[in-house]
C-alpha cells in the first residue's frame, strides 16, 4: 500500500540557480545531483536539514521534455508540483488503482532505481508511485 510522501517536484528554469537558492538561501541539503544517462537531464534533489527522508526534486522541464510538452510544462513553472508516493508492493497497488477506476498511465515500469507507475487524480494532477529497489 501507499506508505508516505517521499518527493515533491518543483519545475525550475535553471537547475544550478535553483540548487544554489535552496542550499544557500534556505539551508537545504543537496541529496542527489546526477545525470539520467549520458548528456541527459539531471536528477537533483534537496531536503530540509531536519528531514532527509523528504526531498524536493528540482526539475527543469526544458531538459526532460520536447516540443509542445516542454512548452506546456515550462509555462507551469511557479505553479505546478508533482507528488511522488512510496509503495511497498507496486503490482498490488497497480491492481487496486485500476480496480478503483483511477486513470493509470501505462503499465508498471522497470527502471534502474526501481519500479514506478504514474496515475492522475480527478483534476488531472499527476502522481508518481515508486517502489525502490
Please characterize this protein's 3D structure.
With 133 residues, the protein is of the alpha+beta class. It has 2 domains: 10-81, 2,3-Dihydroxybiphenyl 1,2-Dioxygenase, domain 1 (Roll), CATH 3.10.180.10; 88-133, Signal recognition particle alu RNA binding heterodimer, srp9/1 (2-Layer Sandwich). 25% of the residues lie in helices and 44% in strands. The protein contains 4 helices and 8 strands. The protein has helices at 15-25, 61-64, 67-74, 90-99; strands at 2-11, 29-35, 42-47, 55-59, 81-87, 103-111, 114-120, 126-132. Strands 2-3-4-1-5-8-7-6 form an 8-stranded mixed β-sheet. Strand 6 and strand 7 (114-120) form a beta hairpin. It is globular. 15% of the residues are buried. The model has no long low-confidence stretch (mean pLDDT 87).
List the topology elements.
Blueprint: E1 2-11, H1 15-25, E2 29-35, E3 42-47, E4 55-59, H2 61-64, H3 67-74, E5 81-87, H4 90-99, E6 103-111, E7 114-120, E8 126-132
Shape from CA axes?
A: globular
Secondary-structure class: alpha+beta
* Fraction in beta strands: 35-45%
Tally of strands: 8
Total helices: the number is 4
Name of the CATH homologous superfamily of the largest domain: 2,3-Dihydroxybiphenyl 1,2-Dioxygenase, domain 1
Can you name the CATH architecture of the largest domain? Roll
Trace the largest sheet across and list its strands: 2-3-4-1-5-8-7-6
Q: N- to C-terminal separation?
A: 16 Å
Uncertain regions spanning at least 5 consecutive residues = none
What brief labels describe this structure?
133 residues; alpha+beta; 2,3-Dihydroxybiphenyl 1,2-Dioxygenase, domain 1; Signal recognition particle alu RNA binding heterodimer, srp9/1; 2 domains; eight-stranded mixed beta sheet; 8 strands; 25% helix; globular
